[in-house]
Amino acid sequence: MTTPVPEPTQARKPNTNADPGHPQGTALTTSQGAVLRDTDHSLKAGPRGPVLLQDHHLREKITHFDHERIPERVVHARGAGAHGTFTSYGTGSRICSAAFLAEGVKTPLFVRFSTVAGSRGSADAVRDTRGFATKFYTEEGVFDLVGNNMPVFFIQDAIKFPDVVHSVKPHPDLEIPQAQSAHDTFWDFVSLHTQAQAHAMWVMSDRGIPRSFRMMEGFGVHTFRMIAADGQSSLVKFHWKPKLGVHSLVWEEAMLANGADPDFHRRDLSDAIKAGAFPEWELGLQVFEDNEGQSFDGIDLLDPTKFVPEELVPIQMVGKMVLDRNPSNYFAETEQVAFHPGHLVPGIDVTNDPLLQGRLFSYIDTQITRLGGPNFSQLPINLPHAPVNDMLRDGMHQTYIHEGIAPYHPNSLDGGCPYQAGEGDNSKMPFIDFPELVAESVKGRSNPVSFDDHFSQARMFYRSLQAHERRHVQQAYSFELGKCASEVIRARQLQALANIDVQLCAAVARELGLPVPGADTEVVDREPCPSVSQALGSWPVDGRILGIVASHHTEASVIETLVAAANHAGFQPLLLSSVGGSLADGSPVDRTLLTARSIEFDALLIADFLVPVAGAKVDSDTKAGAVRPPGAIGFDPRLVLLLQETYRQSKAIVAVDQPESFFQDLGLEGTGPGLVHASVPDAVPGAVALLATHRVWERFDESGPVPKDSARA
Ligand code: HEM
Question: Which segments constitute the Catalase core domain (predicted)?
Answer without folding.
Answer: 29-417
